[in-house]
Write a structure and sequence with these properties.
Number of strands: 8
Shape: globular
Largest sheet: 5 strands, parallel
Order of helices and strands: HEHEHHEHEHHEHHHHHEHHEEHHH
Radius of gyration: 27 Å
Bound molecules: adenosine-5'-diphosphate, magnesium ion
Length: 422
């Protein structure tokens, strides 16, 4: 027997659950697709395309709908000799300026040997290069700017839709499709940009649990063998996606996680219990990401609160967290922040859902104050904070907490420099 064996009990085609998989049909988006298709109709007529602006939260099918329609458009225009259609698609995640967008676009048109550097040119000359590339394409060019809300200045959003009107383009007819996860982005555009970019606006509403069940069912039929899923699996995954954002991606990710856990278990069925474990694993990943993104002071404040929690001292006021935070900060070789800044970190932690805040009233004297406590699994938290615990040392309360544990220790207690102090 080889070291690797094929396991095919669970999945027929696991790739169908991946982010980059494009479903052949979109489920339950008929109305949005009708409007969207109508907005693209001028292209097949050989007319100047509309600029389209799509908005809606993450995971509601904006990118999928765009790919779906543009693939069809490409296919259907192929039969007309008088239409030369070029599609350019750019995800603006990670791009902050119009300059960066323009250089990326220029490079998409150019061959590998002819790429421009993404810094160092005056903006006007990058725009010149872009107009040259677009005009060289001629015909109709559709430029998709996905997640365009990451771009902080609106120069390109002004220039692109007006390139023809401003005489920068003579050959190409250009249409822009802007996609945003953030509705306030549209509100913040200057009126002149909004009026040209948002000629046709299409809103993608969040999915409810019922929509998500249908989307999941479509994917399940491709991804899993018949009869592998227990009946509760799809409803549970759908409820998870519907709960905070109506996000199909979250539901599909959970389904894949559950499928993977079932596969690891060497069983032939995906059960509700796999979904439950999958959900915890995904949440663990998210929390870890949230905590990793914090600054060192954020970690130190959290560590102080965590030890107070373990000692049964919560809920606790920030002035009572402060002495321990100060000491931990010094142990880590840093200077403590002023109380106000320390409180800012507490607020940030509360916003991330890692700690909870309660407003209290002083009673007749009238003042209010806030009390804090940890609001998540302490094991997960310690696991994510292992580096900070290393820097500061293992606090006595943490030591005791871990000693009670039958599970693997999540932090290295051999470094317990001050385990008995405080
Ligand atoms: N109506 C739908 N039918 C089938 N799959 C969908 C549908 N809506 C979203 N999806 C899938 O859900 C995931 C998230 O959709 P996506 O288009 O990336 O969302 P957005 O771009 O709005 O963030 C993708 O994997 C996509 O294929
Ligand atoms: Mg998208």
């Amino acid at each position: 027997m080889g070291m690797f064996e094929r396991d095919t009990d669970i999945y027929r085609d696991r790739d169908a659950l991946r982010e980059d998989y494009q479903p052949e049909e979109l489920v339950g988006r008929d109305e949005e697709l009708d409007t969207y298709r109508a907005a693209l109709q001028p292209v097949i007529n050989g007319e100047q395309p509309n600029n389209v602006f799509l908005y809606g939260k993450t995971g509601v099918g904006k990118t999928a709908a765009t790919r779906y329609l543009l693939e069809h458009l490409k296919e259907d225009t192929a039969q007309y000799d008088d239409i030369e259609l070029t599609l350019v698609s750019l995800n603006c995640d990670g791009l902050t300026s119009s300059y960066q967008v323009a250089t990326r676009l220029v490079n998409q048109f150019r061959s590998d040997t002819d790429q421009i550097s993404t810094t160092g040119y005056p903006r006007a000359s990058v725009y010149e290069m872009l107009w040259d590339e677009l005009d060289a394409c001629g015909g109709t060019v559709i430029v998709v700017l996905d997640e365009v809300d990451h771009v902080e200045d609106d120069s390109i959003l002004y220039q692109l839709p007006r390139a023809r009107a401003n005489g920068n383009l003579t050959e190409a007819k250009i249409g822009i499709i802007g996609i945003s996860n953030d509705f306030s982005f549209r509100e913040e555009l200057s009126p002149k940009v909004r009026s040209s970019l948002c000629e046709q606006e299409i809103h993608f509403p969040a999915y409810d649990a019922e929509d998500l069940q249908k989307i999941l069912q479509q994917r399940v039929d491709i991804a899993f063998h018949d009869g592998v899923l227990n009946p509760g699996v799809i409803p549970l995954c759908a409820a998870y996606g519907a709960k905070d954002a109506g996000d199909a991606r979250q539901s599909i990710d959970l389904l894949m996680k559950a499928g993977d856990l079932a596969r690891d278990d060497d069983t032939e069925h995906v059960t509700e219990e796999h979904v439950d474990r999958g959900r915890r694993a995904l949440e663990r990943g998210r929390i870890k990401e949230g905590i990793t993104g914090l600054t060192q002071h954020g970690h130190l404040v959290l560590y102080a609160l965590l030890t107070l929690d373990l000692e049964g001292e919560v809920p606790v006021r920030s002035r009572d967290i402060r002495p321990r935070y100060t000491r931990f900060t010094e142990m880590a070789g840093r200077d403590p922040l002023v109380p106000r800044r320390m409180r800012d970190h507490l607020s940030e932690l509360a916003m991330l859902g890692i700690i909870s805040v309660t407003e209290r009233n002083e009673g007749r004297r009238g003042g209010t104050y806030r009390e804090y406590a940890i609001d998540m699994d302490l094991h997960l938290l310690l696991e994510a904070m292992a580096d900070t615990v290393d820097d500061v040392g293992v606090h006595k309360s943490v030591q005791e907490f871990l000693d009670e544990d039958v599970e693997e220790p999540v932090v290295d207690t051999s470094l317990a420099e001050f385990a008995t102090e405080d």
